[in-house]
C-alpha cells in the first residue's frame, strides 16, 4: 500500500476507478455523477439574488454533491501528503512545446509561471486563473455539465447532448491551446 | 451524507495521484503528445457504460430502495451543449482543470485556485442571470 503513494497511478487504474463513481453513486443514492452542479449549488446557497435558476432547494438537491466537493478538496490534501512529491513526467515533446511557449519551470503539478499568487499580476497568470476560471464556470453552467457529467456519465448513458458537449470541450481546448496561450507570453 | 464526503475524498485522491489535475497533463492531451489522458477518460467512460448497462438490465435498486434511473438530458436545439461546451473547453485548457480538479488543486498545494473557483462561481452566476436571454 505504501508504494501506491509514491508512484504515478497508471491510466488503466485511474480511469476505471473514476468510471466506477457512476455506478457507485447510483447504487448508494440514485445520484448522477456530475461535479459542475456544485458551482450552481454554491450560487444558490450563497448568492441566489432574484435569479430563477438559483431559487430551488439546494440542500435537498445538492447537499450530497457539496459533501462530495468538500471531500474532493480534502482528497487533494491527503494525496499531496501521501508519498513523496515528484515532478510530473510529461513527454519530452510537451516539454519542448511548452518551453517554446515560455514555460521553463516544470516542478510541481502546475507551472508556477502561471499558477502562483504573484503571477495573478501578470497577463498570463490573470488570464489563465481568472478568465479561465470564469470560462469554466460559465461554460459548465451553460452546457449543464463538465467532464464528469457529460464526458463520463453522459456518454456512458449514450446521451447525444453529452457527445455534442464533449466535442465542444475539445474544440474549445484546442483553440485555447493553439491560439490563446501563445498570445499570453 | 458522510458517505458522499468519503467518496469525494477518494475522488480527490485519484485525481491527484493520477495527475489528472495537472495543467501539464492537460496540455499533453490537447497537443496529442501522450495517450495517457485519453486512456483515463476512455477507460472511465467504458467502465461507466458497462456498469450502467448492467444496472439497467438487472433493474437494480439504490440503497434507499428506489429503482435506479437516469433522467435523459433535454437536447433542445443542441446549442447550449455546443456553445457551453466550447466555452468550458477554453477554460479547461487555460486553467488546466475542470470543476472537480479545481477543488482538489486547492487541497493539493495550488491555493491560488481559490481565485479560479471564485471566478468560476461568478461565471456560473452570470450564466444564471443571462439564462433567459441565451439560446438553449
Keywords:
heterodimer; A: 9 helices; B: 136 residues; mainly alpha
Structure description:
The complex is a heterodimer of chains A (185) and B (136). Chain A has 185 residues and is mostly helical. Chain A has nine helices and no strands. Chain A has helices at residues 2-6, 11-19, 21-29, 37-46, 58-81, 92-101, 123-143, 147-156, 160-180. The longest helix of chain A has 24 residues, at 58-81. Chain A is globular, with a radius of gyration of 19 Å. In chain A, 48% of the residues are buried. In chain B, helix 5 (99-107) packs antiparallel against helix 6 (113-130). The model of chain B has no long low-confidence stretch (mean pLDDT 96). Chains A and B meet through helix 2, helix 3, helix 4, helix 5 and helix 6 of A and helix 1, helix 2, helix 3, helix 4 and helix 5 of B.
User: What is the average of the pLDDT values of chain B?
Assistant: 96
What general outline of chain A do the C-alpha atoms trace?
A: globular
User: Low-confidence segments of chain A, ≥5 residues, pLDDT <50?
Assistant: none
What is the chain-wise order of helices and strands of chain A?
HHHHHHHHH
SS class of chain A: mainly alpha
Number of strands of chain A: 0
Radius of gyration of chain A: 19 Å
What's the arrangement of secondary structure elements?
The complex is a heterodimer of chains A (185) and B (136).
Chain A: H1 2-6, H2 11-19, H3 21-29, H4 37-46, H5 58-81, H6 92-101, H7 123-143, H8 147-156, H9 160-180
Helix pairs in contact in A: 4-5, 8-9
Chain B: H1 2-17, H2 23-30, H3 36-58, H4 79-95, H5 99-107, H6 113-130
Helix pairs in contact in B: 1-5, 2-4, 5-6
